[in-house]
Amino acid sequence: MFIEPYHNQQQTGQRTGWIEVICGSMFSGKTEELIRRLNRARIAKQDVKIFKPAVDTRYHHEDIVSHNASSISSIPLKDPAEMLSLAGNCDVVGIDEAQFFQESVVEVANRLADAGKRVIVAGLDMDFQGKPFGPMPSLMSIAEYITKVHAVCVVCGDVANYSYRKIPAQNQVLLGETDSYEARCRKCFHT
């Protein structure tokens, strides 16, 4: 269970920023958890800005949409550096599908947190080959909080943390859904 961090801003007179990473395989609920945290921040009357890579158009060109169809509006970007000016004076920054951004998203997340913002990042920690994916390992290493969520293996029903690609494409980035990927446990992924 994730207990949302609380940093007392009254004592210092300035906001304390930090980075939270939500990671796991496809179909594990990463985006759903990101949306949940961002909605809670809005309920707490915090100003929230949300970003996603422009390349991710699977469900919607602008909104972030989870596999269970919950959604939240966001700003699609090609370059993570754009977040620095677009975030403005907000309290919370949400970033979905961070594995699709360039490595510079790590520096951007650090700068946003250093500016006193709560930065919540969601993304795949491993690619279809079971290898670390894009900037996610670096984001996890600098984060104050990491939540790894799991799916259910479609083969045996065990805890799944791998994204198995069902089609023969070899490029690392291939946008797809259940037609192209399925969640698998370690044993079923390697079999």
From TrEMBL:
A molecular function (GO) term: thymidine kinase activity
Residues involved in ATP binding: G24, S25, M26, F27, S28, G29, K30, T31, D96, E97, A98, Q99
Residues annotated to bind Zn(2+): C153, C156, C185, C188
Compartments where found: Cytoplasm
The protein's Enzyme Commission number: 2.7.1.21
Residues forming the catalytic site: E97
Entries under PROSITE patterns matching the protein: TK_CELLULAR_TYPE
EC main group: transferase
Catalytic activity as recorded in UniProt: thymidine + ATP = dTMP + ADP + H(+)
UniProt keywords, alphabetically: ATP-binding, Cytoplasm, DNA synthesis, Kinase, Metal-binding, Nucleotide-binding, Transferase, Zinc
Subunit-level organization: Homotetramer.
Entry similarity comment: Belongs to the thymidine kinase family.
Protein name: Thymidine kinase
Organism whose genome encodes this protein: Flectobacillus rivi
